[in-house]
Amino acid sequence: MDINNKVLDNPIDALMTITLTVNGEKIDIQTASTEKLVNILREQLNFVGTKISCGIGRCGACSVLIDNELVNACFVMAYQVNGKSITTIEGLGGVTVDEVQEAFLTEGGFQCGYCTSGMIMAVKYLLALNPNPSESDIKEALAGNLCRCTGYGGIIRSVQSLAAKKIGI
Amino acid sequence: MKSNIQEKEDRVRPDGLSKVTGALKYLTDLTFPNMLYAKILRSAYPHAKILSINTAEAEKLPGVASVITYKDVPGMNRFGIIIPDQPVLCEERVRTVGDAVAAVAATSYEIAEMALKLIQVEYEELPIIDTPEKGLEPNAIKLHPAGNICHRSSYINGDIEEAFKACEVIVEETYELPRQLHGYMETEGGVVVPQEDGGITVYAATQHGFKDRFQLSRILGIPEGMIRIFSSPMGGSFGGKDELNIQPYAALLALKTNCPVKIHNTRAESLRASLKRHPMKITAKTGTDRLGKILAHQVKIIADKGAYATLGPAVLDFAVEHAAGPYIIPNIETGGVSVFTNNGVTGEFRGFGGNQITFALEGQLDRLAAVLNMDPIELRQINLRNATDLGPLGHRIAPTDSAALVLKEIQRLYQKSNTPSKDSNWKRYGSGIAIAMHGGGLGFGRLDSAGGRIFLNKEGKIEISFGFEECGQGLLSVIENIAIEEIGCSAEDIQIVIGDTSVVPVSGSSTASRGTSIVWQSMQKMKEPFKNKLIQHASISLSIPAENLYLGPTGIWELGKEEGPCMTYKTCAEGLLDSTVLTSFHFPVTPDAVNGGHFLYSFGGVKVDVEVDILSGMVKVMSIDHVISAGPVVSPKGFRGQIEGGGVMSLGYTLMEEVKMMNSQYATQNFDTYLMPNIVDIPFDTNVYAIEELYEGDIYGPRGVGEIGTIAITPAIIKAIHDAIGCWVTKLPISSEDILEKAEARGMLSWI
Description:
The complex is a heterodimer of chains A (about 170) and B (about 750). Chain A is an alpha+beta fold. Chain A has helices at about 5-10, 35-45, 100-105, 115-130, 135-140, 155-165, and strands at about 15-20, 25-30, 65, 70, 85. A 5-stranded mixed β-sheet of chain A has the order 2-1-5-3-4, with helices on both faces. Chain A is elongated, with a radius of gyration of 17 Å. Chain B is of the alpha+beta class. Chain B folds into 3 domains: about 25-125 and about 185-235 and about 240-275, Aldehyde oxidase/xanthine dehydrogenase, a/b hammerhead (Aldehyde Oxidoreductase, domain 3, Alpha-Beta Complex); about 280-445 and about 590-745, Aldehyde Oxidoreductase, domain 4 (2-Layer Sandwich), CATH 3.30.365.10; about 450-585, Aldehyde oxidase/xanthine dehydrogenase, molybdopterin binding domain (Aldehyde Oxidoreductase, domain 4, 2-Layer Sandwich), CATH 3.30.365. The two termini of chain B are about 40 Å apart.
């Protein structure tokens, strides 16, 4: 991280260089230290799969993983992600879709799709920690992600179908 | 989570892959070279005269490309789908804090935002009207030249006064309903790109591209032919993006700067300027004879219109129409008034007045049942419409026995209800039911154009297009599934085109639960002529009798030859010059000249179980069962999603959601104080049962289900709370304080 006097004198506007890894690719960017991660992803790096809905950490539409921890990207500033590894929705899957994405497709875990990127990241995070979550585990893990379309039914079925697969039901 | 929707082949929705991978570009995700970013200055006051607007300082700010005010509107400085009464940019007066006064395009949002602060607007505050009652006072300041009454609507049948005299039991209640936020996850936004011919291309979500084109043409003073609208996809709408929002400002600035201009509202900006559901106060007086036959029903509705009309008159008409719902009431008097205030503009919202009026109607039924000491289902049965009865405005409707079928299924679920008996000291449990009837389409007297187009394109794909938008509701699945069913082709053979006014046919709006109906009806009209064109071509080319040919996967097949098509669609496309079949028709409408009267109705019923905590006043919905009768299910996942999602939206409406206004200023600004249901608030035990059979002779096919799942849930929750603690809630959203007061008033907290 390049913190010079210019940055210290004017932390809001002065540009600094940070290095971060996004979906496996190491990137150097020039940014204001206080720029929000979600804006860096969307505006500078063109990862527009991550969405902004409330902008104040209340809806989860901008959920991404930072070093495998689930965060709201509207709540993280540039200087906080220097040297970190970020996974966005674009970083899931490879030749085929990720199993969580597949479950959302077959179980109808989305409608308009605007919460979906964040929701899938939250489900990813949940299942990484807990492959067979109970109802209360699911509620706790996804409480920060709003969906206005599905009423959560399809999302719950997506998670439960994955849990059932993992434990071999 | 159960559902009886048979596991018919249930494909992944056409837009699915792009949504789960994040690859789908929403219109707010787009960027263009040389693009500018714009912000809109909204009024500082809910009601004021504008004395002056000075933009000089803002214009000087480096990075600012243009600042516009009312002086920069070349055409009509008004918008509004039916009644254009809302200024694009206010001239001498503001009537709500959502009113736009100026807009700035700059090289970044930050600079545009800074420029807004440099615009000096001199206001002279005027007295505010912050309730519809104040708007009706004789000496109230007039918000519009014709006064403060936006619309009156009424329906009278029989002799209400005489009928009340004959009643054995009469109940009267006033129901109060809140201002609900649509809460679409994608706020309004998009990009307007100027074209070389002086026209524009608009990339911004709306529920009716052609209507935006029409309105923008009036505002910009350029022909509709010079405006192209990309209206889809979008991150939810629920009625909220039906009216123009940011389009005029981006369009004016794009034409002025000759650069693409992007506007994407922040949530706070969205909340300030967007439509909301009409707050209504509904007073209902209903009487029955000794046996529970409803003789008289008198309803008075007062709706808070906010500052401008948009579709408010139609919403009020809809509420008046549905005042008796699925019941046959011989004497009825319904009167509604929609009143202008300085509050935020209210307008179209999923359910369209049906939610409010059904809360009152079903509430009355439950209160009557309680007074009569009668089973609430039995009371409903006694008064329920028969298949061939007239509609609620005394008008002819498509015969339907759905009301009875839904009630029967709800009865079965209600009887099965096993409310926990292990009441703890402070938990009480109850069950409740409600039913609803909901009109589809715009109703009598409203231009309700429908239609679609199908042809075999050069690539050999069956191209099907409609002037509809994909809001998330699953329209693409509906089109794909109906096409496969009716044509016989496979999903891979189909290319669906929607959401671009330069190529789609007129289908009308993506509203009013009309999309599925229209897609199905269009396909009925188009399929035979289309198939015939292809078969005739193949028949002549291959010298096979036409009667031996049919359309199947990948091409045209010959009867009895199963190894493959005798002509692929690709080959057919190369030889067949014109395969286009177009249809254009009016949405089915009642033959009786009754303003707003509908013809096709869907029916729904809900049973819920609730837990009421009389210590905290919290109400928790433990289970929801939906029963829906709307004809055959077109796409199982889409159907289920619409009903579950609609139900949860109304669970929020009932239990937690309210956009608060204080002195006509928004107290609520974002999701920190506007609470929509999250996954913790909803019951995992949610089940959807579809009754797919249509009444004998019904030729109208599947009905849309975008709204019906939102209607009956509210009164069902209220009934369940009554079942649990013996109190009626009359004001939404239900507050803990209200529950606690009621519990205390009944002496339920005496053990403390």
